[in-house]
Hints:
single chain
Amino acid sequence: MTTSTLTPRHIASRTAVAILGGYAFTWGVIALGIALLYTAGMEFHDAEHLSYIIGFLVFLTAFLVAFATQRLGKMALILVGGGAAMSAVAWWLQSLIIATGV
């Protein structure tokens, strides 16, 4: 990448994908992690804390990869789409937990 391709618009779009896409993906990882760990028998607060720790590492990775990737659109789709998919699965699993009273 040359300095001529590093326009302010390019930097702003990478920053937006890194922050907002990373946040959406991390939200999905944390929600799904809590639901899966709680379903597996872990205490709720232990599952919550472990998922937040893992979420910190996931956000850091997503943030760095968003700046390192060549295809920003594909990365945005992966982060936002993956976050939405994981959030939907977590919502479904949590509704099952509430319905069955696990």
